[in-house]
Design a protein that fits this description.
Length: about 120
């Protein structure tokens, strides 16, 4: 596996507490057959991708990239291990919904055998 790290911004500003997902850009994605990974941004919007087994990195390939920045009804970021459905009062994604769904996201990333530096500046609309 290779290192993928970068920064997520929206409208030119860092997006803290954003979950970044990389899923193979293939027909019929099956998590039991295809490698994928996740990362969580820090306060500066920086992230590093890791495999679901906890190993840092991801396999080279082309990926669809998803982004969610969940906050509770008071605007506080929810912890990454918390399921949105378990938050009293509900949650809101600070980013446009087009970035949340694997079927809708316009973002792609090609990861070479050397890894990738992935910097995203997302639309706020």
């Amino acid at each position: 596996m290779v290192t993928v790290k970068g920064v997520v911004k929206a409208g030119g500003k860092p997006v803290p507490h954003c979950k970044v997902g990389l899923f193979p850009d293939v027909e019929g994605f099956d998590p039991s057959k295809h490698g994928y990974g996740f990362g969580m941004t820090n306060d500066k919007g920086e992230f590093e991708i890791q495999h679901p087994n906890g190993t840092k990195g991801i396999f080279p390939g082309t990926y669809k990239v998803t982004f969610v920045a969940w906050v509770d009804s008071k605007g506080k970021a929810i912890p990454p291990e918390t399921k949105p459905s378990e938050v009293p009062g509900g949650v809101k994604n600070l980013l446009p919904s087009k970035y949340e769904a694997l079927s809708d996201t316009p973002e792609r990333l090609t990861v070479s055998k050397e890894g990738a530096e992935a910097n995203f500046d997302l639309s706020t609309q």
